[in-house]
Specification:
- Two copies of one chain form a homodimer.
- By secondary structure, chain A is an alpha/beta fold.
- The first copy, chain A, contains twelve helices and 16 strands.
- In chain A, the strands form five sheets. An eight-stranded mixed beta sheet of chain A has the order 3-6-10-7-13-14-15-16, with helices on both faces.
- The longest helix of chain A has 18 residues.
- The radius of gyration of chain A is 21 Å and the shape is globular.
- Chain A starts with a helix and ends with a helix.
- At the A-B interface, helix 4, helix 5, helix 6, helix 7 and helix 8 of A face helix 4, helix 5, helix 6, helix 7 and helix 8 of B.
């Protein structure tokens, strides 16, 4: 392990990690039955673990990732990797989620394309990638698959489930679905159900993919991929992850070439070339169908409807977890008012809830960026729930 | 003229109107020289007039339209038209812009596709539609073409230039470009220069069009049109015209089919089917290349840079117009803070400025919707400037 890895700019790294795989529902007679009623099997989850499981198995932190995330939360696969995992600033020795103390698990979500079963996986029945014959999966289905993985790992209790955005929805779902297994939870920059605005953005992104003729009704795995549509979809996403203010600070009206306008349709402004770059980079690593499936799962998610017959209070009365709810001032995808209403409902049921709205210019993306306040909050909350959990 | 037309739900209509055409720069030796340095000719502007020009020619209101607008501000082309012009709620007998008092002119902007010369027009040099060989036009070029039209109509003074969004940019441009010709101005829901966020939305919309293989580098006039790309572009636009709140009120999470989710990629939510409908409707009436050209013109617009060497105060010192600046609380495309900074700069130069932020849930679109407060404001402002303009 190189010096670089042990002391990179994010602090001490958890070091080298390995992606692992767990497959279940291999028996066609015992598939995973999804919320839609459809069956799926076999199901593979790619996952990674960080830190050491305590003998009492009471130090488990389950990290739940967002739309385009993966199991690679922290550390490096190889000593010469240029970048660590996506939340390396938070997970590692001495960090907000201290891997010297906690045992961290993260699995790639069902429906994704980063090692877990999704529409790009081969359907054993046909020997070809599922494409659109892959059944729609829900946030509940993702959590169900994670629960089966934890059973397999012999882990009963989660000290804390933590995640942002779509990861935060999984956090909430875990709490109400398995109240006996979740001691505490940190939903970050998330909501119990998408607003019309959030659905609208997802729908436009999906339409961009489906408008690409190379999408070919989802059957593109042997030919050209719908890279243009997926790039546009990602650009839409990137706008929602930032904010008016962050874009002004990051780009303003700065030109790509300082001279003057091109007077054609090249990228004149830096913000244009940033979006094009993000779009083009994304298509190299992400599957267009997975984008469709995961955004649809997020749009469908409705904790109130599913667990409380329309009432958030009724839904949260099903959990006993302690909560740290965090929102960010400039997040307009999941604005603070949504977190406040979550917190209000939690408090009404008598739950132990802390709420923090963090001042940030960086929009929805803020939860992924270095933030000392967030790291300190998470660290303090975990220390408290661990202390209080010791019998 | 039917009873319906005279007293429709918008109040008394201005009645039947006719689209007219004015062509200039027909002599190849005297083309319209654009801000980019390129030349264009001949240039046709489609325009409509409403009300009567006073003998003193002192009652002219110039209405400037936004991205997808046209010259058809009010009234009907035919007695059996199902819908009047786009601002019929504001322009007509007894309305905010009273056609019993004022002579209203509106021309389709240069670069558009609703009768004026744009990329879909035939290039006389080749006998084929311009496509991308059409030169980029700017907000300044649009105003220049309008100025030539007014000269042709024998109109020297504009009592008031009024318009929202990109129309508001033209309003501001008129004021600083022709200070002797503009007595007053009402820029609505607009800005002197796009924020990075506004550019980002436009760029994603453009990318959606250009990603459509039927776009064919802009050369699609004899074949299939890039309807999928343009529909996605329009959907992006529609999100920006609304607001989180208006979408919640208009759609919330209501389902298209009340039963339950489709568990496929159909439009489950009403907001999805609204966006699809808007996208599909738009492609029937609008040219994809015009969308590219006009959004680029809007992104390029920078009043401060072009007229004030970076200073809004310096730019506005070039006009003597009286201003009524209007913004809307929920407009996040051109937020109120941008109008406030415009007003601040205007006041610093000693201009006569009224500013009003109108409470509205309807986002950027608010300026196009029935709003008694807005109508009353416009009416009162016009009465005052007319009174004060009488020597």
């Amino acid at each position: 392990m190189s010096e670089y890895i042990e002391h990179d700019k994010n602090g001490v790294s958890v070091g080298l990690v390995e992606k692992q795989y767990f497959t279940f529902a291999e028996d066609p007679h015992h598939p995973l039955v999804l919320e839609s009623g459809a069956s799926l099997g076999p199901v593979t989850l790619a996952y990674e673990i960080f830190g050491k499981l305590s003998p009492e198995k009471d130090n488990v932190i389950l990290v739940l990732h967002a739309l385009s995330g993966d199991s690679h939360v922290a550390g490096y696969y190889h000593a010469d990797d240029s970048k660590p995992g996506w939340w390396d600033i938070m997970v590692g020795p001495g960090k907000g989620i201290d891997t010297d103390t906690y045992f961290v698990i993260c699995a790639n979500i069902l429906g994704s394309c980063m090692g877990s079963t999704g529409p790009a996986s081969v359907d054993p029945k046909t020997g070809r990638p599922y494409g659109l014959s892959f059944p729609l999966v829900t946030i509940g289905d993702m959590v169900e698959a994670q629960r089966i993985l934890l059973d397999h790992l012999g882990i009963d209790k989660i000290l804390c489930a933590v995640g942002g955005s779509i990861g935060g929805m999984q956090v909430l779902e875990w709490c109400v679905r398995y109240p006996d297994r979740v001691v505490s939870a940190i939903p970050l920059a998330t909501t119990t159900r998408h607003s019309a605005l959030a659905i609208a953005f997802n729908e436009v992104a999906r339409q961009a993919i489906m408008a690409d003729p190379d999408w070919n009704s989802g059957d593109y795995y042997t030919g050209k991929k719908p890279v243009h549509g997926l790039a546009v979809a990602r650009m839409v996403g990137h706008i929602t992850y930032l904010s008016d203010e962050s874009m002004r600070l990051k780009f303003g009206r700065r030109l790509q070439n300082k001279a003057d306008f091109s007077f054609n349709f090249d990228a004149d402004f830096q913000v244009e070339s940033y979006l094009r770059y993000q779009g083009n980079k994304f298509v190299e690593r992400f599957d267009a169908n997975s984008f469709l499936y995961i955004t649809k799962a997020a749009d469908y998610y409705d904790l109130e409807k599913q667990h409380g017959d329309g009432s958030a209070v009724a839904a949260f009365s099903k959990t006993r977890a302690k909560f740290l709810v965090v929102s960010f001032t400039s997040d307009w995808l999941y604005p603070t008012y949504q977190s406040r209403s979550v917190v209000k409902a939690m408090k009404k049921t008598g739950l132990d809830v802390s709420f923090c709205e963090i001042e940030s210019q960086w929009g929805h993306d803020a939860f992924l960026l270095p933030n000392e306040r967030l790291s300190a909050l998470v660290k303090g909350f975990l220390e408290r729930v661990r202390r209080e959990a010791i019998p």
